[in-house]
Amino acid sequence: MHRTVRTLFTLLALIALGAAAAQGVTIGVLTPLTGGAAGTGQAQRAGFELALEEINAAGGVLGAPLAIVIEDTQANPAVGLAAFEKLMTEDGVEFIAGGFSSGVTLALVESFRTFQPIVMWIGGAVSGIGIDGFDGIEELIGQEDWFFHVHPWDYHNVEAATAFVADTGSQSVALLHEDSAFGGPGSAGAQALIEGAGLTVPLREAFTSTLLGGTGDFRAAIAKAAATDADLLYWIGYDSDVVPLTSQVRELNYNPQYIFGAPPGWPTEFAAAPEAQCVTGLIGFLPNLPTPEAAAFTTAYQAKFGAEPDNYFSALAYANLWAYADAINAAGTTDQGAVIAELEAGTFRSPIGDWSFEPSVVGKHQGFTTDLWLVFQYQDGVREIVWPIEKATAPLVSCR
Amino acid sequence: MIDPTLVLQALVSGVLAAGLYALVSVGLALAIGVIGIVNFAHGEFFMVGAFFAYQLFVSFGIDPVVSLFLVAPALGLIGALIYASTIRFVLKAPELNQMLLTFGLGIILQNLALLVWGGDPRTISGIAYRSIGFQIGPISVGLVPLASFVISLALVLGLYWMLARTATGRAMRAVAQNRIGAALVGLEVDRVYLVAFALSALLAGIGGVMIAVIQSPTPTIGLAFTLKAFAIVVVAGLGNIRGVLFASLFVAIAESMVATLVPNGDTLRNAVFFAIIFVVLVWRSRRVA
User: Does B128 touch chain A (CB under 8 A)?
Assistant: First the structure.
């Protein structure tokens, strides 16, 4: 009797294991598909879908097709938390990808700790480095074995931006920033680094982004910047702030030598707008990046979606999913320890070039850092890469 | 030391911003004052107007100055359809049901916009006049804010005239005062409501075209302006259409002054209008008591 029951259980266990193997690995993705940051979320989805198609065409993961479950965070902390817990409890995923918004990420920290899946995160850049009394994502979970941060931290962004600003020869910088977990710490870090490079910052002024309830009237902040007559206007905000901010700079007759913006993405049609001329910005990927990886990704993306990948989060999402696929295949199992070891040891493909995880100032696993960033300048409707010089497709021009 | 140029610029910017605020608010005030319904989807009419202007530009190259005359009637028609198919059935229902209905309509419109245009900010790219500013001494007056102020002022004053001098306007005022009395003297109350709701949506549509020029429309763009409109309608007095213009000026100038004179003052704009609502409500309740 006992033997029969044991045999039955063994058979059932084997069937269950077989079913699981046939189902293959599922990665849970958190991204804002709707709401004010939906543009970035949709770009991430495109990157994930392209990578998924290529991974499965190449044989999938552990011999079965890879699957992804995408949950919408709406860039809203409460919605993001519910979406993550759904992935953990209902979908039973062991791997989390995607991510956008430091606010959402900070809200997820405790829940990440509770469930402890492997989290390979391409958004949420806020770190507390250089800010007294503030713990960012890096300080809170950067040292966890299961947390892998792909996107540069905000101080990496600021380091790259500051290096560019210093290279322009500007003497003074007016800093305008949106007032959330994205722009606040970023601008504080920027001010410290810019002043450390010997430049002056006569103004650091906060505004409410149109993404977070602002009406897009930035004239008060711009008028204050104009009153300083700074050589360079440096602003940190969101995609939807680009048009009102740059047009109001012209409208108020503020004519700095350079206008430098650091939103997560830029509106698609902005390149053709007259006020775009000479505006510079930081970006993680551009289709005209002169590398074979970039060209291959752009060609595949255009073939699948009929448009160029103009938001760098699509490139990061693509890199994100491929890293999971390569690490799990190299581990030969979904065992967490084995996959973590492969993620720590591996070098992964991306449209930006090969990359791997290294320690950051506090974190154990940091993917891209300062080296991700390019500075482009809108020149006659085209985003030309102007910095770093070795990747430049055109020289930087002054707005004056 | 406060820079007098900045103060003057803040005053000019505030006055010009009041035009758009008034245009968005007067439609909401019309719905509340005449029909007695708080339309939480008002900002979404505004958003749909912005996307229509964007689409007409992208598909047919129609400048927003021209598309204003296409978008406004289109929104009026959409408003009329929404009234006839949904709003009219809840007019006698509890207020909570009315609010839930309009809130739901807002969510539906937002998600339809997301399906059609996606979540990316959209830009009407080929217009040079968005960045033009006239220098008057040290003060800059933007062409688009000035034009939107003049158009808004003309529309709001035109609405005042219509309400005071035309048969439709008088019918709206009569229905607003006493629905049953108006019906007893032979007014078609339902038709008056339909016209008022369509007019409210039409005005929101015009505001939407203006916002499509000024910034990049997204499906969620309506919310910030709905909040402003509610603040202005509260300051003016619920349903007081005539008070909207002055309330808009008051709110817009107060916001602009705080944004300019206080360090990081732009982030206090929402605090300013909530403070205004608070003070006005407390003052009114004390006056009544």
Answer: yes
Extract the tokens encoding B267: 């982030």
ipTM confidence score: 0.88
Which tokens go with B116? 């059609």
Backbone angles phi, psi at B151, to 5 degrees: -65, -45
Buried b (16+ CB within 10 A) or exposed e, A67-81: bbbbbbbbbbbebbb
Q: How far is residue B61's CA from residue B59's CA, in Å, rounded to a whole number?
A: 6
Contacts of A39 in chain B (CB under 8 A): 118-121, 218
- Residues with Cβ within 8 Å of residue B230, at least 6 apart in sequence: B28
- Give, in order, the Cα–Cα distances in Å from A364 to each of A139, A186, A340, A343, A352: 10, 21, 12, 12, 22
pLDDT, tens only, A165-191: 999 999 999 999 999 877 887 888 889
| Cβ count within 10 A of residue B190 | 14
Query: Is B144 in contact with A251 (Cβ distance < 8 A)?
Result: yes
Q: Summarize pLDDT for B143-171 with one digit per residue, the tens.
A: 999 999 999 899 989 998 999 999 999 99
What chain A holds in terms of domains, given with CATH numbers, is: 2-153+291-371 (3.40.50.2300), 155-288+373-391 (3.40.50.2300)
Task: Give B133's strand partners.
Answer: B142
CB contact under 8 A, A223 and B119: no
**Which two tokens mark A360?**
């950051």
Q: Give CA–CA dist B94/A368, Å, rounded.
A: 56
Sorted by where each begins, the domain ranges of chain B are: 4-223
The pTM (predicted TM-score) of the whole model is 0.80
